[in-house]
Amino acid sequence: MTDKVVLAYSGGVDTSVAIKWIAEKYDMDVVALSIDMGAEKEYEAIRKKALDVGAIKAMVVDARDVFISDYVFPALQADALYEGQYPLATALARPLIAKLMVDTARLEEATAVAHGCTGKGNDQVRFDVSFAALAPDLKIIAPAREWGMTREQTIDYAKSHNIPVPVTVSSPYSIDENLWGKAIECGVLEDPWVEPPEEVFTWTRAPQDAPDKPCYIEIGFDGGIPTSLDGQKVNGIDLVEKLNSVAGEHGVGRIDHVENRLVGIKSREIYEAPAASVLLPAHLALEQMTLAKDQLRFKQKVALEYADIIYNGLWFTALQQDLAAYVKSTQRHVSGTVRMKLFKGRATVVGRKSPKSLYRYDLATYDEADQFDQSASEGFIQIYGLPVKTQAQVQVEEELK
Ligand code: ARG
Fold first, then answer.
1. pLDDT above 90 covers what percent of the chain?
2. φ and ψ at 69, to 5 degrees?
3. For the whole model, what pTM was predicted?
């Protein structure tokens, strides 16, 4: 019996060529698996194409729900933003794709898994490390890393093997997208001095062309999970889709990031992530109302760590699970509503409220409702400033003058 391999199939030229190339080079039967995480694609057409090109079986899995609930929202609860800029759309999708590939490999009794990543990016690492964690017995085939073909050679290979090459392949950009965002690379973008041409943006309007009137939206959170928009309960997929469209319309969510890849190179990445650019600051605003100062500070460190774990392909590790458990615990009082203003490319927090808010008007106010005992401050400051005073007298009095 011929051995089987499960290939993550996007419908693009590289993974189409991979179907033929694997069959030729490894003499294996290819099962194509396409995963819907909210990219605007014709998945049925992709499935048919896989079969036309030579896969023995092709299937599509709708993973949007799990993606949002088990990957995107935990990252949101953690406030994960790689290097302060990238909301991690691609990075979050990879471990889930790997998991679904392994599940399929088991069902199909395949002996290998395959992906179309090159040898220069982060995605190959995320896939291969996930496979190592979930199914170390499966062989990993990475045609694009192995075949050493240039873009043109790949296209020639496709043409000579009767693989349809769509005209859009002439686009110089490499794109990866899902509900949480879109990544755009290559072409003129590889010069970090060049402003991204307007044509690369398809999810967002240019801020200067956005409506002249601001749009206000209210996002309701329940335990750190966004669950309503303008008072209406809404499921995760709909909420993220709606925010992508409304915020994108207002020019919110364009990100230009010179990023440190795991393989040691810097790369210039353009992202569009309207929903993430609204939800991350909204979520943080609610945490600022409901978490104590020390919780917030500690959680910031965890956010950095957690974002790196996601970026670096370490989803299926004990550390990821431990930090996720900590983050989940921090969210038990992060419930309430945040009011955001979308205007000309910016998403600004303009209001927040929570039944578990630690903000106390009677302590903060300067008017007559004031309950704060100002007379207690004097003694507090005496003790608080004591070590400063002591040291200054003995050691640094002269230096400070
Ligand atoms: N630089 C981003 C990341 O590493 C986006 C990668 C986009 N991936 C792709 N296959 N085009 O997560």
1. 93
2. -75, -35
3. 0.96
CB 53 within 8 A of CB 19: yes
Residue 230 zone, left/alpha/beta (φ > 0; ψ -120 to 50; rest): left
Residue whose pair of structure tokens reads 């003995």 in the numeric block: 394
Give the separation between CA 123 and CA 132, rounded to whole angstroms: 14
Read off the pLDDT of residues 171-190 as tens digits, 9 standing for 90 and up. Answer: 789 999 999 999 999 999 99
Higher pLDDT pick, 169 / 202: 202
Q: Residues with catalytic annotation?
A: 14, 94, 123, 174
Per-residue pLDDT, 171? 79
pLDDT of residue 142 exceeding 70, the answer is yes
Q: Specify the ligand 1 atom closest to the Cα of 88.
A: 12
Q: Which of 115, 176, 311, when mutated, tests ligand 1's pocket best, judged by the most ligand atoms within 8 Å of its CB?
A: 176
pLDDT tens digits, 326-346: 999 999 999 999 999 999 999
How deeply is 297 buried, as exposed, middle or buried, from its count of CB atoms within 10 A (0-12, 13-18, 19+)? Answer: exposed
Mutate-to-test residue for ligand 1 from 9, 115, 123, 175, highest number of ligand atoms within 8 A of CB: 123
Distance (Å, whole) CA 183 – CA 159: 27
What residue ranges define each of the domains in the chain, with the CATH number in brackets? 4-170 (3.40.50.620), 177-353 (3.90.1260.10)
Q: Tell me whether residue 203 is exposed, middle or buried, using C-beta atoms within 10 angstroms of its C-beta: 0 to 12, 13 to 18, 19 or more.
A: buried
The span from the first CA to the last CA of the chain, in angstroms, equals: 86
